[in-house]
Amino acid sequence: MRLMETNRIDTIFADLRPSGRKALMPFITAGDPDLDTTIRLLEAAQDAGASICEVGIPFSDPIADGPVIQASMSRALDRGLKVDQVFAAIAEARTRLTIGLVAMVSYSIVHRMGLKNFVTQAKTAGFDGFIFPDLPLAESGPARAVVAEAGMILSMLIAPTTPIERAEPLAAARTGFVYVVSRPGITGAREALPPELPARLERLRGVTASPMAVGFGISTAAQVRDVVSVADAAIVGSALVAQIYEFAQISNDRAVEGTRAAVAELASGLTADAL
């Protein structure tokens, strides 16, 4: 009988839980400004306190992404980035990375490459799991089965407008963590988090014991602190991607060091006495 392997994402949350610690999950677009720098950005995020990184695999029509991430993906695609190049870069760097790596990727790419082929290549490269933002729950059965067979995780998104009776099967279908979208609309930094977020997370706790990661609109250490007071992880995307782009206008080295400082600042919000 084949023993089920423990996924790195599950291990990370399990290791954090006994001491009440929470996770920071930055989003980084693969290939922007280039793949070599992407790896350095992941290493910098790890050094600065990230537990898991979402790696966005560029797609010409990204789902739910705001203008910052759309522009980042367009820049990578304009340079001719291919999925197999992303896998090769992650594979080369994986022994230096202890953080969890989750690929955020359109299911149209997965379908084009072939579900089992894509999952196998991603696992071989060193990814721990996936978010397919455009894959509906009703059509996710085959993907969930193949991902589970590979010992990887598949996180399902729960939108702000999702009623609890629909959130329950979404939560049950996930592995690894539930991605809780903090607000309607597209990604992008905001000045404040929705005041109703704590109450909605409390209701979701009633239907799942899974770790909950909150994303969309988080951009400061204060917001990270507020999120992790009620959730298990804070996801930061557009704010960090925008900073990487600005730093990269100076140099790729500046982008790496700027990212290290930015993630360290965001990670300061993980502590109970932060700010």
How many domains comprise the coordinates?
Answer: 1
Termini, distance in Å? 51 Å
Q: Could you give me the name of the CATH homologous superfamily?
A: Aldolase class I
Average pLDDT for all residues: 90
The radius of gyration over CA amounts to 17 Å
Number of H/I helices: 12
Give the topology string: H per helix, E per strand.
Answer: HEHEHHEHHEHEEHEHEHEHH
Q: Reading side by side through the largest sheet, how are the strands ordered?
A: 5-4-3-2-1-9-8-7-6
CATH architecture annotation: Alpha-Beta Barrel
| Biggest beta sheet attributes | 9 strands, parallel
Find the CATH topology: TIM Barrel
* DSSP strand tally: 9
* CATH class designation: Alpha Beta
**Unreliable sequence segments:** 184-190
Principal-axes shape call: globular
Instruction: Specify the helix fraction band.
Output: 40-55%
Q: What share of residues are in beta strands?
A: 5-15%
Decide which structural class fits the backbone.
alpha/beta
Question: Can you offer a commentary on this structure?
Answer:
This protein is an alpha/beta fold. The protein has a single domain (8-268), classed as TIM Barrel (Alpha-Beta Barrel). The protein is built from twelve helices and nine strands. The protein has helices at residues 8-16, 35-48, 67-78, 83-93, 107-113, 115-125, 141-149, 164-173, 197-205, 221-228, 238-248, 252-267; strands at residues 23-29, 52-56, 100-104, 129-131, 153-155, 157-158, 178-181, 212-215, 233-236. A nine-stranded parallel β-sheet has the order 5-4-3-2-1-9-8-7-6, with helices on both faces. Strand 4 (129-131), helix 7 and strand 5 (153-155) form a beta-alpha-beta unit. Helix 2 (35-48) runs parallel beside helix 12. The termini are far apart. Mean pLDDT is 90; it is low at 184-190.
